[in-house]
Each structure stands twice: as C-alpha cells, then as structure tokens.
C-alpha cells in the first residue's frame, strides 16, 4: 500500500513539475501567457491522469469506479451541486464580511469581457488544477489510504500529501535554478490545508468526485473573476480590512468545512469516521 500511495503522489508531482518546467522553458521563446497556460493544462493532465489510470488498473487491480469518478452524464448533477455549494458558502461569507464591516459589496455586473475570459479560463483551470488534483488526491490517494486507515486519519494524511506536492515541486524548481520559495508562505499552506479538507469532506459525504471538481473549479473562478475588487468583476467588492479578503478566499472554505462536518454527523447522513473501507 505504501508504494501505491507513493507512486500515486509522484504521478501528480511529476505531471505538475514537468508542466512547470516545460512552460518555463517555453516562456523564454516569447510564447504568450495564454499559450503557456494551455501548455500547463495539457501537460499536467496528459501525464498525471494516464499514470493514475495505470496504477489503478495494474497496481490496485480495482475498478476505476472505486475512485468515485462516475461518467460525465451521471456526474453532471454532482458537478452542478459542487458549484451551487460554493455559491452558497460564498454568499454566507459575503454576508458575514459585510456584517463585520470587513468588506462592502459595491455593485453587480455582467461584463462581456469577463465572461469571455472565464470561458477561456474554465477549461484551462479544469485540466491544469481541478481534474488532475481531485482524481489524484481525493480520488486515488484517499481511496488507498482508507483501505488501511479510518476515514478521519485518511483525510488528514490526504491533506498532508496535498500540501506536500506543491512544496516538492517548488523545491525541485529552486534546486534547478528555475524558481524561488516566495509563493510558499504560511498563508498559502493554511489555504491548502483548508481547501484539501473541504474537498475531501465533499468526497466523503457525496461519494462522487464530480462534486469536488465542480466546487474546486467554481472556487478558482470565484477568486479570480467573480468576487473581486474590480469593476470587471461579476460581484464587485471593496475590502475595508484585510480580513475581508480572508473572509472571501479562506472564510468561504471554512464555512464549507463547518457545514459538511455538521451534515456528516446528522441522522441518516451520518458518516462513520472510524470506518476502514476495503477496496
């Protein structure tokens, strides 16, 4: 089991690391930002996903469905549910931020240029971040961890591996003289811990990875284009305090964690956190 976990984690690290190296090299030739983003997405998914598939088939020798990734048609409602859940917790975060005086909702817009940018960015974010990350961490790694450890411990170990991945890639880039440690801050690590937790809770509660992918993708678009202090945002906000920024970006995720934990402890929806689930 240890080696399956190690190779599963490496599948993503290799995919992401290779994508960053190739994009960095391509950038020296004057390739525009959009081209580099597409390159990152294509390389990350085309390396990570086949490796996870091979591990699942030949190392685990278990069905692909065990990872929680149903067919797109059957997963559509979960995908939309993930987007809806993100919208709900973001709305609560905005209400709380406004009530505490940390932020102010300025106006609502529907700018064509922002919609166009989002239309371009969504498939990039899907294949660069949301899909390969959810398949690897909340899918493959958690599934294998939960065959040996209780759910609560498998969740914690998954979060640890999730945080470790970008640190490992950054370390490699620094060692190769292609990067710095500037992005690995305490705030960044805290964000990863919270994000990895809420996403794993979604997977446990729903038993379907598409809800994770929907939430993940929607969160990325929300913090980049939807709820930002810009006249081009869909929900234009003004941060009165730094806590307003934290409330939108990390507060919404923490609200989601609280809601999902409460949901997992209720009646017929109760989750057996001590359960070890054979594959």
TrEMBL record:
Occurrences of domain CAAX prenyl protease 2/Lysostaphin resistance protein A-like (ranges): 119-219
Pfam families: Rce1-like
GO biological process: CAAX-box protein maturation; proteolysis
UniProt KW keywords: Hydrolase, Membrane, Protease, Transmembrane, Transmembrane helix
PANTHER family, A to Z: MEMBRANE-ASSOCIATED PROTEASE-RELATED (PTHR39430), PROTEASE (PTHR39430:SF1)
Top-rank lineage group of the source organism: Bacteria
Transmembrane segments annotated in the record for this chain: 35-55, 76-102, 108-131, 152-178, 184-202, 209-227, 247-265
GO molecular-function term, one example from the UniProt record: endopeptidase activity
Organism: Paenibacillus glucanolyticus
Name by which UniProt lists this protein: CAAX protease
């Amino acid at each position: 089991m240890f080696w399956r976990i190690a190779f599963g984690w490496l599948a993503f690290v290799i995919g992401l690391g290779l994508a960053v190296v190739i994009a960095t090299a391509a950038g020296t030739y004057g390739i525009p930002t959009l081209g580099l983003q597409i390159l990152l997405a294509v390389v990350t998914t085309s390396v990570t996903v086949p490796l996870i598939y091979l591990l699942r088939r030949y190392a685990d020798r278990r069905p692909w469905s065990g990872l929680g990734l149903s067919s797109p048609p059957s997963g559509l409602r979960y995908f939309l549910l993930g987007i809806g859940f993100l919208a709900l917790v973001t709305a609560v975060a905005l209400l709380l931020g406004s009530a505490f005086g940390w932020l102010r909702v300025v106006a609502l817009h529907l700018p064509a240029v922002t919609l166009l940018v989002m239309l371009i960015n969504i498939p990039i974010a899907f294949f660069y971040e949301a899909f390969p990350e959810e398949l690897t961490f909340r899918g493959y790694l958690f599934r294998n961890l939960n065959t040996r450890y209780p759910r609560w411990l498998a969740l914690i170990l998954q979060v640890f591996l999730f945080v470790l991945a970008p640190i490992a890639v950054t370390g490699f880039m620094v060692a190769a003289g292609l990067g710095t440690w500037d992005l690995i801050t305490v705030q960044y690590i805290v964000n990863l811990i919270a994000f990895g937790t809420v996403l794993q809770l979604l997977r446990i509660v729903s038993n379907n990875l598409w809800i994770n992918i929907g939430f993940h993708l929607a969160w990325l678009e929300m913090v980049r284009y939807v709820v930002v202090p810009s006249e081009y945002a869909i929900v234009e906000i003004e941060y009165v305090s730094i806590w307003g920024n934290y409330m939108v970006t990390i507060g919404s995720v923490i609200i989601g964690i609280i809601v999902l934990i409460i949901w997992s402890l209720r009646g017929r929806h109760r989750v057996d956190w001590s359960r070890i689930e054979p594959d």
